[in-house]
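Here is one chain, start to finish.
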Amino acid sequence: MSEVLLREFQIDWKLSGKAHQTVGDYSRYVRAYLSSGCEVSLVGAKAWLESTESVSTRRKYAQALRAFGKWCCENEYNGFEWWSRLPLAPEKQRIQRTVGISDVNLARQLARTKRDKALVEVLWSTGLRRSEIARAKIEDIDFAGGFVIVPQSKIGQPRVAPLSTEACKAIRRHLSGRASGSLFEMTGNAIMLRLRSLGIANAHAWRRGWAVESLRRGVSEASVKVAAGWSSGAMVSRYTAALSSELAIEEFSHSWGTGRN
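Its structure:
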């Protein structure tokens, strides 16, 4: 019976437009809990979580049980009525690198080949994930419209991401007349290693930088969410909060005449 519920849970999750990978992970965690021998109750769930030493893993497990429990209650399936009382391990706030204009300018100097230059411009103008860049095909590029089609993003649905004029020019120079096939002819791992060898920030730092810079330039949160392929506005809200704090400090600096050191 549990497998039937998990399958229905997965289907409903995907139909709601949420990330396919997330529900796959959640289902594995719930399945592990159900097969652990622990009682299906609040006490049993706490005992199962307590047996996990890693705080980050414990948090993921709890998120999975809460998501599944909430879904069960919404669909009137008994057994997980306690889901909202299951504690989440506190999430450690880590400072994550975010690419800014100075990083972009430096990367443009470090990129020597046509392919590297095109990669830098694509990273900065699209906000694509590394895996999405690796899968991108020349046929997905619309130079006239200024966008790239992402056939399948993390949420399992196609979307379009913007391409700047600089990115279009760099891609044309990189392609040298090629009209089909893989855009960069690189795997995701190869892209990671190439960025590292150039001394350039990883693709996720570029993605964060693209989101922050887009918001800074006045792009709406809704548009950033759609272009990034996020299933909810949580990520955009996080970047908006960070940007608001930064802009507040700038405003105080100008007002008080302190400037920046």
